[in-house]
């Protein structure tokens, strides 16, 4: 399972690889690289380009 987290620079929402985002069809353990580039932040709608790796 993934052990990294990615934070939105616009709103601060965090994607945890270990948790995934099941409500959007992203299974727990899904690495950030496997999320489509067209995916958008569930809180503010920005793209993957506006995310950075965050410390756990």
UniProtKB/TrEMBL annotation:
Record InterPro entries = Rubredoxin-like_dom (IPR024934), Rubredoxin_dom (IPR024935), Rubredoxin_ET (IPR050526), Rubredoxin_Fe_BS (IPR018527)
Give all residue intervals belonging to the Rubredoxin-like domain. Answer: 3-54
UniProt function note:
Involved in the hydrocarbon hydroxylating system, which transfers electrons from NADH to rubredoxin reductase and then through rubredoxin to alkane 1 monooxygenase.
Q: Name one GO biological process term.
A: alkane catabolic process
Cofactor dependence: Fe(3+)
* Alphabetized UniProt keyword annotations: Electron transport, Iron, Metal-binding, Transport
Q: What is the lineage of its organism?
A: Bacteria, Bacillati, Actinomycetota, Actinomycetes, Kitasatosporales
What is this protein's name?
Rubredoxin
């Amino acid at each position: 399972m993934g052990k990294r987290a990615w934070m939105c620079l616009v709103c601060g929402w965090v994607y945890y690889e270990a948790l995934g985002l099941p409500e959007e069809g992203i299974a727990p353990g899904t690495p950030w690289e496997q999320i489509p580039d067209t995916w958008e932040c569930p809180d503010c709608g920005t793209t993957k380009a506006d995310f950075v790796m965050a410390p756990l």
